[in-house]
Amino acid sequence: MSLVERQDMMSQETAVWDGGMGSVSDYVALLKPRVMSLVIFTAFVGLMLAPGSVHPVLGVVAILCIAIGAGASGALNMWYDADIDEVMTRTRKRPIPAGKVTREEALAFGVTLSIGSVVLLGLLVNWFAGAFLAFTIFFYVIVYTMWLKRSTPQNIVIGGAAGAFPPMIGWAAVTGSVSLESFVLFLIIFMWTPPHFWALALVKNGDYQAAKIPMLPVVAGETVTRHHILAYAILLAPIGVAPYLLGFASPVYGIASALLSAIFVGLSFDVWRKREGDPAKAACWRLFKFSIFYLFMLFALLLGESLIAGV
Question: What is its EC number (predicted)?
């Protein structure tokens, strides 16, 4: 074999190597750690609020399995949406479009974690929670990612259910069932998701247009999207207070959630009112950032009251 042929073969091997075998940080990025942190937190709140008790070790196992299942969903989402991620400025640095992990590697990683998390949760905690986690992964990957995301402007409305299931799974890990209280936790996240994502979609509208994703601002226009954001914020307000109204949260939570909900509605009204230029973009960013704080505070208050009650 000539020197030129050897150099050519080495260059081809290097190209193959560069196309995958990402670092640990690349695989962590596939798990969507920021989304996973919200899943872990809300699932933990559901577990802590559930009546009865679970052995601390099994509680840790349950939260770990839910976190891994959420990460698996993220990896499978990136596997399927690699073409979209390559177009959008917000996502083009993700591991697959950046060439650090191949689609095949992401698929294998996501499938392995999905099966492992469901089986482990079922065997060590209970099979109802395991089946619920399996359904959540299926809903996010098949229903939302593969179907709704590319076919309807209601993608984030219906698909948002996947992100709202974790507190119910946490509840199910303790009780082996679900209840009205756990459904209220689900409903808070479910109603919160559209205005949260639509505020971002208004800012990143050009990205979604380039990727041909039928987000509401792309299909119906920014004015209609602003109407929807305000409507969902108004509907969310009483749901945010519902834990107090239904008797499983204190008056302190009731007052705090009412104030937070009022601010959420006010910021949504600001988005509805400001429709052009930098003021409109700034209003959207304010709502997007506050919406994260809003959800965190509601669940933190519920968790705090649960911990105080358990002392």
Answer: 2.5.1.141
Residue 13 pLDDT exceeds 50: no
Q: Give 10's pLDDT tier (boundaries 50, 70, 90).
A: very low
The values of phi and psi at residue 204, to 5°, are -100, 30
**DSSP three-state, residue 60:** helix
Residue 99 has pLDDT above 60, yes or no: yes
Query: What tokens does 252 get?
Result: 């302190």
Rounded Cα gap, residues 66 and 137, in angstroms: 10
Using left for φ > 0, alpha for ψ between -120 and 50, and beta otherwise, residue 250 falls in: beta
Banded pLDDT at 111 (limits 50, 70, 90): very high
Residues in CB range of 271: below 8 A, 6 or more apart: 199, 202, 226, 229, 230, 280, 283, 284, 287
Instruction: Assess contact for 245 and 224: CB atoms under 8 A.
Output: no
Q: Is the pTM of this model over 0.85?
A: yes
Alpha-carbon span 109 to 68, nearest angstrom: 11
